[in-house]
Write a structure and sequence with these properties.
Elements lengths: L4 E6 H5 L6 E4 L6 H11 L7 E7 L6 E2 L2 E2 L3 H6 L3 H13 L6 H7 E5 L2 H12 L15 H10 L3 E6 L2 E6 L3
Length: 170
Amino acid sequence: MTTPRVYVGTYAKYNSGSLEGKWLDLEDYSGIDEFEEACQELHGDGEHEFMYQDWEGIPGQFISESHLDPEVWDAWVNLDQDDKNILEVYLDSIDSSGTLDAAKEAFLGEFGSEEDWSQDYWESSGMLSGIPENLRYYIDHAAYARDCRMSGDVTFVEKGGMVFVFSNNG
């Protein structure tokens, strides 16, 4: 994952034809106040309207050219890598205005394939307990996963060679 960072310039410099600024890593700051102090130091004394000319490693809902959401530290920067992965997939594929809590509530796991999810689901839910051992190999897990996807019960999202599975039954 890319370190969350922002290229900070000012509108005054931009309007004068200058892209002068600097990349600032959000992980270097404890919050918006400390970040804005660094922006002020970067661009000297005086009032500045900061311009976020580029960014990476930050979901779009937290930033625009003229605004950095103060919640980005709690809602993104300070998350562990597993939570960032879940939230990023959720925001990109399920609900672009979602929260970590909503993503975790819907998250069913990360698997090698849709079929792997089906096998895990059948085992962990107890559905296999009523099926004789010698018949369990006849279950078509690929078809079951496909049916769950097509019925809208789950969403499968492939990322980085893995399949993230989310329940759609809020």
